[in-house]
Specification:
Strand 8 (about 160-170) and strand 9 (about 175-185) form a beta hairpin. The mean pLDDT is about 95. This protein has helices spanning about 30-40, 40-60, 110-115, 145-155, 190-200, 205-210, 215-225, 245-255, 255-265, 285-295; strands at about 10-15, 20-25, 70-75, 80-85, 90-95, 120-125, 135-140, 160-170, 175-185, 230-235, 240, 270-275, 280-285. It folds into two domains: about 10-240, Hsp33 domain, CATH 3.55.30.10; about 245-295, HSP33 redox switch-like (CBS domain Like, Alpha-Beta Complex). It has ten helices and 13 strands. The protein is α+β, with helices and mostly antiparallel strands and about 300 residues long. The structure holds zinc ion (ZN). Zinc ion binds near residues 243, 276, 277 and 279.
């Protein structure tokens, strides 16, 4: 996939005497890119865009360059499964099973919770260890931010507040997207926690702040107004898929000799699609024969 330039970024920092850490993101371009690649309906754009935004921030939390975070939402709603993967450089990719899902608006808003339904959020962290870390939580509302908040509380035991928002233009392209993750450090005082809870309750929504022209820095400054706050890092984030013909061919090889022999017997080139970025890869019969030599069993 081609690299694209974008204005998207993530900031991270500390506030309130290091009792709170925060991540905040602007992700319009990457959500718009996901919309273009997958041809998502407004509801699916909002659902996938929120998960991509949360995933990009969670990727940026990783300690090692090779760490990967995958978020999977399996609900019983019409949108089907959503999957997002992000790396430590905040490269993020994702897809949704039914990108064209259309639902009536609920209270004047896109009904993401209705599209997702009841189900489970699974977070898989590949930290280069033998077994990846897996955490699971039941969906609270299917609105995604609340579900991630619940995941942090139940699986990681970190009091966290997640806010995510995707706002559409009238022509259904992405107008704004972004969000933040606020986490209490273990030594945070009751006073700080309740002060922040009050501010979060008054915050309205990410999309309202972004549509008023605020940046992630502005949003955090508003939230921590009157408290000390330091931005420690600013990093770009983008929609990026690392698939290639070589990687896809390895995946085909891994399905084994028998299956590849069947494909060769059919005498037609095969086409493999990448779910994440919708790239198409073609393999000729001759290429399949080469792959057969590398296949096991
Ligand atoms: Zn791809």
């Amino acid at each position: 996939m081609e690299h694209t330039t974008s204005g998207d970024y993530i900031i991270r920092g500390m506030a309130a005497d290091n009792q709170v850490r925060f991540f905040a993101a602007y992700t319009k371009d990457l959500v718009e890119e996901a919309r273009t690649i997958h041809g998502t309906s407004p509801t699916a754009t909002a659902a996938l865009g929120r998960l991509l935004t949360g995933g990009a921030m969670m990727g940026s939390m990783c300690k090692n360059d090779t760490d990967l975070v995958t978020l999977q939402i399996k609900g019983d709603g019409p949108i089907g499964t959503l999957i997002v993967t992000a790396d430590a450089q905040a490269n993020v990719k994702g897809y949704v099973r039914n990108p064209q899902v259309i639902l009536p608006a609920k209270n004047g808003k896109l009904d993401v919770g209705g599209a997702v339904g009841n189900g489970v959020l699974t977070v898989i962290k590949d930290l280069g260890l033998r077994e990846p870390y897996t955490g699971q939580t039941n969906l609270v509302s299917g609105e995604i931010a609340e579900d991630l908040t619940s995941y942090f509380a139940s699986s990681e035991q970190i009091p966290t507040s997640v806010a995510l928002g995707v706002l559409m233009n009238k022509n259904n392209t992405v107008r704004h997207a972004g969000g933040f993750i606020i986490q209490m450090m273990p030594f945070a005082t009751e006073e700080t926690i309740s002060a922040l809870e009050e501010r979060l309750a008054l915050f309205t929504s990410v999309t309202r702040h972004l549509d008023a022209g605020e940046t992630p820095e502005d949003m955090m400054a508003a939230l921590f107004d009157g408290m000390d706050m330091t931005i420690e890092q600013k990093m770009p984030t983008r929609f990026y898929c690392n698939c290639s013909k070589e990687r896809v061919s390895r995946a085909v090889i891994s399905i084994g000799k028998k299956e590849i022999e069947k494909m060769i017997a059919e005498g037609e080139p095969i086409e493999v699609n990448c779910h994440f970025c919708n790239s198409h890869y073609q393999f000729s019969v001759d290429e399949l024969k080469e792959m057969l030599k590398k296949a096991a069993g």
